[in-house]
């Protein structure tokens, strides 16, 4: 397993790099400091796994300082060529905080067809870190991930059941953390409170938000900047409408129709979170989409199971 890494040198504030003049790097004397920074701050903070077993044997192959304008990491081949190129000359005036450190490290593996995972713990480098990972599979396919902070263990090419389990959990957490969706559900069930009356309404809401969630996942939704705030505004209006209808009086036989319309809106709201986590689906978009929807439904069932008895008690 070959890992090519690039890290801004300003993350290594505790390393004493050889400097000259007002703080320019002395490239001819950098080798020891660069290897020290790579080992202490990078290779010890990124953990790779093969079929669930951590790859503990590793070899630091090369390090190199590059200019911030260097674009070699746009492709694996050019990044590999760059790290093996001649180091910068001492005549280059590069302030040490402006450089980037490129690192090449290899791990012996059993097979290229194994299941690989990564656990980046780079949050120690700074108060806020963003890590971009591009994983190249043997067949040429590519998986791209973008993490903020330490994301935990991430399967680089997950099996369908691994992706499904992760997305069930994400959907469940999303509905429990989404105050707007919880308020809507609360307003929705206040005048019902009976399982028989709830079934058509909740079914209508589920079908509606599933339609727009699936449509958004496959790109059948506007991508303009105004779309997200527009949907969030409509979700807020749906809560206000349901609350107002509860006050002035509601026609329960027609509530499933209103719920279906608002369910379409809430489905777009769910899709915003789903699109941010799509990177964890690997090649299993549809199964991950269904799993996310299942997680949302499980969260709704839990909320209803807790809320309805409380409402019945209050109304008595």
Can you characterise this structure?
There is one protein chain. With 316 residues, the protein is α+β, with helices and mostly antiparallel strands. The protein has helices spanning 31-43, 76-83, 160-177, 179-189, 195-217, 227-248, 255-277, 285-315, and strands at residues 2-8, 19-20, 24-25, 46-50, 53-54, 59-66, 100-106, 116-120, 130-136, 142-148, 154-155. It is 47% helix and 17% strand. The radius of gyration is 26 Å and the shape is elongated. 26% of the residues are buried.
Note the run of SSEs as H and E.
EEEHEEEHEEEEEHHHHHH
Radius of gyration: 26 Å
The 3D shape can be described as elongated
**Helix share of residues?**
40-55%
Q: In terms of structural class, how would the helical and strand content be classed? A: alpha+beta
Q: Report the sheet with the most strands, covering strand number, pairing sense and barrel closure.
A: 4 strands, antiparallel
| Physical arrangement of strands within the biggest beta sheet | 5-4-8-11
Number of strands: 11
Number of helices in the DSSP assignment: 8
- Amino-to-carboxy terminus distance: 65 Å
Average pLDDT level: 87
What percentage of the residues does DSSP assign to strands (E)?
15-25%
- Stretches where pLDDT falls below 50 for ≥5 residues? none
Structure summarized in a few sentences:
It is built from 8 helices and 11 strands. With 316 residues, the protein is of the alpha+beta class. A 4-stranded antiparallel β-sheet has the order 5-4-8-11, with no helix packed on it. Strands 1-7-6 form a 3-stranded antiparallel β-sheet, sandwiched between helices. It has a two-stranded antiparallel ribbon with strand order 2-3.
């Amino acid at each position: 397993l070959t890992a090519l890494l690039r890290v801004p040198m300003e993350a290594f504030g505790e390393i004493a790099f050889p400097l000259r003049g007002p703080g320019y790097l002395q490239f001819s004397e950098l080798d020891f400091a660069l290897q020290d920074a790579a080992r202490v701050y990078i290779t010890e903070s990124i953990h790779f796994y093969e079929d669930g077993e951590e790859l503990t044997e590793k070899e630091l192959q090369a390090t190199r300082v590059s200019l911030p304008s260097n674009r070699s990491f746009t492709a694996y081949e050019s990044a590999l060529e760059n790290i093996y190129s001649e180091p910068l000359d001492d005549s280059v005036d590069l302030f040490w905080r402006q450089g980037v450190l490129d690192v090449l490290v290899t791990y012996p593996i059993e097979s290229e067809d194994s299941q690989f995972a990564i656990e980046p713990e780079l949050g120690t480098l700074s108060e806020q870190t963003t890590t971009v990972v591009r994983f190249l599979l043997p067949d040429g396919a590519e998986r791209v991930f973008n993490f903020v902070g330490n994301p935990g263990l991430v399967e680089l090419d997950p099996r369908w059941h691994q992706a499904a389990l992760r997305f069930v959990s994400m959907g469940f957490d999303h509905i429990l953390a989404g105050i707007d969706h919880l308020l809507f559900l609360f307003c929705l069930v206040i005048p019902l409170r009976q399982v028989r009356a709830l079934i058509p309404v909740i079914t209508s809401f589920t079908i509606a938000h599933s339609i727009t969630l699936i449509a958004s996942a496959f790109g059948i939704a506007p991508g303009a900047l105004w779309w997200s705030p527009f949907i969030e505004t409509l979700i807020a209006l749906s809560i206000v409408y349901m609350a107002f209808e509860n006050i002035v009086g509601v026609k329960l036989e027609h509530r499933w129709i209103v719920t279906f319309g608002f369910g379409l809106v809430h489905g777009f709201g769910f899709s915003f979170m789903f699109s941010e986590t799509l990177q964890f689906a690997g090649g299993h978009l549809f199964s991950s989409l269904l799993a996310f929807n299942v997680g949302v439904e499980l969260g709704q069932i839990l909320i209803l199971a807790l809320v309805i008895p409380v409402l019945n008690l209050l109304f008595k």
